[in-house]
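Hi Y.,

Following your request, here is the sequence exactly as I used it, all 1076 residues.
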Amino acid sequence: MSYLDQMTGFYLCFKILTLLAAVFYPRAVTLRETSSVSIFIYDDFANIDGSHLVNLDSVSKMGSFGTPQSIRTIISHSFRTQAKTSASRYGIRTRVLTNVPLAQPIPVLMTGRKPTHYGIRNSLLGRIPLSRELKVLNSEESPRSRCSSSSKGRAILNSNGAREFTSNSRGPSNNNIVSLQRVDITKTKSAVTTVLPRIFIHNMRSLNDDKFIELKSLGNKYDLILLTETWLTEAKEKLYSIDGFTFHSCHRSKRSGGGVAIYISNKLPSHELCNFTSRYMSSQWLLVKLPEQPPIIVANIYHPPGLCKARKDETVNHIISTAAKYIKKYPSAKMLLTGDFNDLNTSSLTSLLPLHQIVDFATCGNSKLDLVFTDIQEYVTSRCICLPPILNNDHCAIEIPPASALRPSKYQTVTKRTVTASAKIAITEELSRHDWRDIYDELSVDKKVEIFQNRVSQIFDKHCPLRSVRKPAGKPLLTSTLLQKLKRAKQRQWKKHKRNHKWRHLSALIIKEQRKLQAKHTSNSVNNAAKGSSNWWREVKRLTGESTQNSLPPLLHFDDTWQSIDQFTTNLNNYYLETHDDTELNFPELPSSTSTLHVSEFHTYHLLNQINTRKATHSEDFPSWISRNNSHLLAQPISDIINSMLRSGYFPAMWKKAQITPVNKVRSPKLYKDMRPIALTFHLAKISEKIIAHHIKQELPHLDNQYAYTRGLSTTDALVRFSTDITSNLDNKDTISVRSLLVDFSKAFDRMRPDLAVSKLLSLNIDRQLVKICMSFLSDRKQQVKVQDSISQLRSSKIGVPQGTILGPLLWNVFVSDLSPLIKHIKYADDTTLYHTVSKDNSTISESTARHVKVTLHNDPLQNAASYTAEWCSENMMILNACKSHTISFSLKKCVETESIIINNLPILDLNEVKLLGVTYDSHMKFTAHVDNVISKSKPAFHAIVRLRKAGISAQNLALFYKARIVSILTYSAPSWYPYITNNDKQKLEQYQRLCLKVILPHIENYDEQLGKLGLSEINTELDMSCLRYVEKVKSPNHPLNHYLPEAPNHLHHKSRATIKRRTALMDKNLFIKYK
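Below is the corresponding structure, written out as tokens. Let me know if you'd prefer a different format.
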């Protein structure tokens, strides 16, 4: 062994022993006067009280082995650079004071390796917190004197016993000593939270899948992402959502290209002020609310190039007027106006508005097209950063780093249960040993339910406890070593040469590698999963953006007010119950009943096995899979509880508690009325409701004209009857038109009075014991609203029937059973449609037919029916919404004008197109508008197929997605409209399917080969088969439309063909004749 190897070994042993001694032996050291430390002074970083904070960081090394001696700190250039970079990330100016002599000894406690905000960093022991106040030289002293290691000043004691320094010329004095005090870390964190958002601005030149992959990676770095030229359409918007962000998009109307979009973190409450789009520009205005700071008005604008001066002036006037409007409305708000302005003259924006333009570099070639105007001082003083574009874009990106920004947390803590197979077995074993005798001996139904629910919940909590799990925030991005190297090489190329051929080549390689990684991941997650399984659909929804469940921001803007999530749940619950406060119920007296209702243990066992475990239940309920997996063990105690309920006629109070989950009626709800309340109850309550509903249906007579919540009937049956009645009346030569009124009830289910429903059950001769249970079910209910983890308080619900229960829809059908307006009508849930034929016999039409015929009807049957419906609503405490009710007149030849229907002294709007149960009817029964609507409705699914194919999904899996998401839309309720459409509309449907299959199988050009490969048929053939299957269903003698089948099919079939040749005329019973 050479001398060099020996010395190396001794040196390593010495270092190891030094480390062990430093860790185990010295638990405290003292910094003496002769010690010197390196200090980082952070100037512009103030806490809540306004005093300046000072952060001490240094790199120290121990003295001789094992002995607590004075520490002389040594700071390296790399550590100084790292600290400065860390400080500049918060926009804090730093000064590094090296080898600063201490003013007095200070003990430093070694409390472990955990980092703290304030202290002295030791190279072996990590960062050490200060135990008390530390005094060092004043920062105003010259660095050269501070760096001197031969200071001759000495410490003395003054009259008070305090240590002072002699005033030597090269030593420290009391006048230049500053105190560096320890500051509470919690205050520092609260100060950091009141920060400005970090902003990313970019002209995308079309937001596609490849660019979206790069865009998702920015979610961890920025709070606000503003994009221009997204080239999005309404069908593509939901494909580009990012977890943890709210997506606002505004695309140009009547012209391709352009468009703007904003991603805003859910940590920042925001409210969309307005969207403006035209052929010449797009603008988006948002109000972002910051905690403990003034709000920010954010505007994102795209102005296309090459417009005339008038259009440019129009854009400038729009920006100035809109900005002035919101500055006046929100006087304390700041403004941030960004976008791609191209050749627009923006000098007036800074002269007429109090804004500064802060971009000082070219953003596209040698031109400065992307600009930022703001009056936020922190953004004005900070320098915008030019970032390389995403992939091969021609615009560079812009970053606006604020003076202080909140670093996003890399981890989040979630509370969850881990349900394993062994836990399920343990639950089954404990339930098998459990004695339910106390439930059998108990007389009170409420007590029985309480004991059972608590026992099973305790067993579940025992074997599947709640645990807090720390997991990375956000989803991991697909990456590889090659992809990282390519991105670094592209970054270096951008810094050296900006955009050149090598940079574009690297962008193409990155796109290729990203697609390769995506295809590999997809093949493992989707193609290997069982087609149509829950795991398969979960992965497909994740790829298409349908499964993105963004958390709500801390503040919501609803009904023009800012409110927290807790306030939102409380206010929403109050809105649902606002009609309940002054309501007095008068239940009828129920005579005693001698009926003996009973449910067998086997029947209960059968119902427990039919539980759908994927359905959501009340948060206080135990999982429904416990009842299903252990039905043989729980059938006896559950049947005992249900039989006690049937005997007593009392529905348990615990099972009447409902947890309301609001579901959006519209895409972006802004009002409480845009949220539909869906009640989640206990799953055993639904079992009991099934048993009660089964007994009621056995005694309930057939309810005419009601097609909802009835076994064997659906929306298709209601629509087929409506279409058939309209066309058969129009085929009559004496018919002028068929007038229809679509009635809308306001909050129908929430206004149903339980006492009136009970009275109507008695009038239908339902068993008195069942009526008593229904009365108990509807009275004294309680509900609360749950949004994410926020739950409102329980409030009593006096009226209404909960949506989402088993018994509620049946009771609603009973409630509206006496609504019979004396003319033809169709009822489906709370949708009621009245229609009446206007013929020459009951009109005042002259024989000389004009081009526009005005029908003046006296004693109009439709008006009488409308008045009757309004009167029924008044008697049953319902509200008929005249503003949302509409009329339509169906006619074949002439444009017929009629007098408006009046309801509650308000005229009903007459339309040429109405949507009834998902089908669009026009006044000439062409259904061309419906064909266009279903194609437009399925466009998002079409774009999802494009994304799935790029992700590597196999053709067979794409065919399954196509049939589930597109064919189901195109063929919905086909028997009600398909027999009446023109050949042009049929060709339009077939061409749309050709386009879809071309995306699924791009390498096969022949349409028939594509159909054979995927096992599909032509879309018109599929629609024909749907009509044939429906006719076979109607042939059942018990079907309510059985009497619509023609008696003489041959003769009528010939007449129907002759009639169809006319452009808009339709033959009586055309559907049943054609498919007989």
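The radius of gyration is 38 Å.

Thanks again,
Q.
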